[in-house]
UniProtKB/TrEMBL annotation:
InterPro entries: Rieske_2Fe-2S, Rieske_2Fe-2S_sf, Ring_hydroxy_dOase_asu_C_dom, Rng_hydr_dOase-A. Keywords: 2Fe-2S, Dioxygenase, Iron, Iron-sulfur, Metal-binding, Oxidoreductase. It comes from Streptomyces cavernicola. It comes from the Bacteria. Residues 59-165 form the Rieske domain. Its cofactor is Fe cation. One of its GO terms (molecular function) is dioxygenase activity. Coiled coil: none annotated. This is Aromatic ring-hydroxylating dioxygenase subunit alpha. Pfam families: Rieske, Ring_hydroxyl_A. Signal peptide: none annotated.
Length: 431
C-alpha cells in the first residue's frame, strides 16, 4: 500500500469561512426522509466540501486489475481537482501517485490506460520509475538531491481484483473489515485474473449524488425496458406490504426463483447472505446474491448467457447475480459469464463521469466465446437511460420552485446513502 504522508490535507484545500458556515447551516437542517436541498446538488461550495470530506478521505473504486495486468501498465483517473496514476510496478505490485510532476507541477499522463517503461514528464523530461522515484532531472545544480523529489504517493489496494485508492493521510481503518467480508463473495469468480472485454465512459449531466441516488433505487425501473428482461424490478422491497399492486405477480415469481437460487448457492458453497452496512460504518457497503429473471444466467435481453465460459470456471451458468454497493462511488454486478463494474467520478457540481467495465473469463475470445454487442447491450442502454433521468433531476433541482420531496418506502437505500453522506459531512465539520 502506498503512503501519503506529505500533507494531503493541504492538497485537499480548506473551505473558506463563508463556505463553511453555509455548509454547516444546510447540513444541520437536513430532514431525514426527504431529498436534499438544492445547494447540495448545484453549488460549488458543496462540491468543494464533497471533494474534501468524501473524495479526499474515503476509499474510492477506480479500476480493475484486468485494466493494468502487466508491469508498466497504468491507468489515470481524474475526479474533481485531482488526477491519480495507478501503475503496476516492476515487481507486479500496485502503486498510485498524484499525477503531478515534482518539478513545476505539470501533468504527467493524460486520463486513460497506457503502457510505460518509466513516467516521463512531457514538459521538461523529469523521469520517474514505476516506484515513483525520480531517476533523471536534466541540467540540475550539482547539489540537487533527486531522492527528495519522488512522486507523491496515494494509498492503493486491490480487493478480489477491484482497485481502490484513498487520498487521505490516514485512510478509514474499517476498510480491512469490509474487505474481509466482501472478498469471499467475489473470490469464486476470479476477477483478478479476468480479461477486460470492454470499457465505456459516459459523462452524465448531473451532480454525483444524483447519480448515486438514482442507482440506489428501482422505483424508476420501468424506464429500463432492456434491463427488466433479466432483472426483477423489486430491488429494496423488503416487506411484502411494500410491494406495489402492479408488481405483485412479479414479486411472487421473484421469491420463488430466489428460493431456487439459494439451493444452488448452498450446493456450490457460494455465500449469499444480504449484508447491509450502508450507513452504519465509515466505509458503507451492501453485498448479496440475488435472482435474475428470464433464463437467470446473465444480463442479456432474455437472461441467457452471453459468454460460453463462466467466470472462475464455476460449474453452473444459472447463478443469478452478485451485487455490491460501496460508498461513495461504486456498484457492481457479477453474473455467471461476466462481471460489470461501475464507478462515478465527479467532474463539477453538475457533471459526473460514469465508467463501466465488462470482464470475462481470461481465455474467452470475442466472436468465438462471446458477442460483445449482446453482452453490453443491456447496461449500455440502462446507462444511457439513467443519464437522461439524472439530467432531468439536475434540471429540476436548479429550478427555484424545487423543494425537497419524500422518499418512497422502496427508496430506503437512497435515504441510507444520503444519511451516510450527511454523517460524513458532519464528521468533517467537527475536524
Amino acid at each position: 500500500m502506498g503512503s501519503s504522508r506529505e500533507g494531503n490535507d493541504v492538497a485537499q484545500g480548506n473551505l473558506k469561512a463563508s463556505q463553511l458556515e453555509r455548509v454547516q447551516d444546510l447540513v444541520a437542517r437536513r430532514t431525514a426522509g426527504l431529498s436534499l436541498e438544492a445547494p447540495f446538488y448545484t453549488d460549488q461550495d458543496f462540491f468543494d466540501a464533497d471533494m474534501k470530506a468524501i473524495f479526499g478521505r474515503h476509499w474510492l473504486f477506480v479500476a480493475v486489475d484486468a485494466e493494468i495486468p502487466e508491469p508498466g501498465d497504468t491507468t489515470t483517473i481524474d475526479f474533481g481537482p485531482y488526477s491519480v496514476i495507478v501503475v503496476r510496478d516492476d515487481d507486479e505490485e500496485l502503486r498510485a501517485f498524484h499525477n503531478v510532476c515534482r518539478h513545476r507541477g505539470a501533468r504527467l499522463l493524460d486520463a486513460g490506460c497506457a503502457e510505460i517503461g518509466n513516467l516521463v514528464c512531457p514538459y521538461h523530461k523529469w523521469t520517474y520509475n514505476t516506484d515513483g522515484e525520480l531517476m533523471h532531472a536534466p541540467a540540475q545544480a550539482p547539489d540537487f538531491d533527486r531522492s527528495s523529489f519522488g512522486l507523491r504517493t496515494v494509498h492503493v489496494r486491490s480487493v478480489a481484483g477491484l482497485i481502490f485508492i484513498c487520498l487521505a493521510e490516514e485512510p478509514p481503518a474499517d476498510f480491512d473489515e469490509v474487505a474481509a467480508v466482501i472478498e469471499p463473495y467475489f473470490a469464486p469468480h476470479a476477477l483478478k485474473g479476468a480479461k477486460l472485454a470492454h470499457r465505456t465512459d459516459l459523462v452524465e449531466n448531473g451532480n454525483w449524488k444524483l447519480v448515486l441516488e438514482n442507482n440506489r433505487e428501482c422505483y424508476h425501473c420501468d424506464g429500463h425496458p432492456e434491463l427488466i428482461g433479466a432483472y426483477f424490478p423489486v430491488f429494496a422491497i423488503d416487506d411484502d406490504e411494500d410491494v406495489p399492486p402492479n408488481l405483485r405477480t412479479t414479486y411472487e415469481r421473484y421469491r420463488k426463483t430466489l428460493a431456487e437460487m439459494y439451493e444452488v448457492y448452498d450446493r456450490l458453497g457460494l455465500p449469499y447472505e444480504h449484508i447491509r452496512e450502508v450507513d452504519t460504518r465509515t466505509t458503507g457497503f451492501r453485498v448479496q446474491r440475488d435472482a435474475l429473471d428470464g433464463a437467470g444466467e446473465s444480463y442479456t435481453l432474455d437472461g441467457t448467457a452471453a459468454c460460453t465460459r463462466t467466470l472462475g470456471d464455476l460449474p453452473e451458468k444459472r447463478l443469478g447475480y452478485l451485487s455490491m454497493h460501496m460508498q461513495p462511488n461504486s456498484w457492481f454486478h457479477v453474473v455467471g459469464d461476466h462481471a460489470i463494474t461501475f464507478s462515478a467520478l465527479p467532474i463539477s457540481p453538475d457533471k459526473t463521469l460514469v465508467r463501466t467495465t465488462w470482464l470475462v473469463h481470461p481465455d474467452a475470445e470475442e466472436g468465438a466465446d462471446y458477442d460483445l454487442g449482446a453482452m453490453t447491450k443491456v447496461w449500455t442502454a440502462t446507462n444511457d437511460q439513467d443519464a437522461a433521468l439524472v439530467a432531468r433531476g439536475q434540471q429540476g433541482v436548479t429550478n427555484p420552485a424545487y423543494v425537497p420531496g419524500p422518499y418512497a418506502p422502496s427508496e430506503h437505500q437512497v435515504e441510507a446513502f444520503v444519511n451516510w453522506y450527511i454523517t460524513r459531512l458532519e464528521e468533517e465539520l467537527k475536524r
